[in-house]
Design a protein that fits this description.
- The chain has 84 residues and is mostly helical.
- The protein contains 3 helices and no strands.
């Protein structure tokens, strides 16, 4: 049981943007791709769009995550095909 719960809604304790970038970079490099800021922006754009949709339409959060991931992976595949 916890006696205290700390909430950080304004990036006082944790800089969310840095944490998101570092985590994203680690995942991208782990799957063998090169990280770029453009790639992060594309990921953020997709998750923001799905976040807006989630707030307006009632559907399960798991579905939101699956759709966002599928969209991002689709973007990545198209990027890889252009490289070849």
């Amino acid at each position: 049981m916890y006696d205290i719960i700390l909430m950080d809604i304004d990036n006082t304790i944790l800089d969310f943007n840095v944490a998101e970038r570092d985590s994203f970079k680690e995942v991208i490099e782990e799957i063998g791709l090169s990280y770029t800021d453009d790639l992060l922006r594309q990921y953020q754009k997709l998750t923001n769009l799905y976040g807006i949709a989630l707030s307006k339409v009632k559907f399960p959060k798991k579905l939101f995550l699956i759709l966002a991931l599928m969209s991002f992976l689709s973007f990545m595949v198209s990027k890889l095909m252009v490289k070849k």
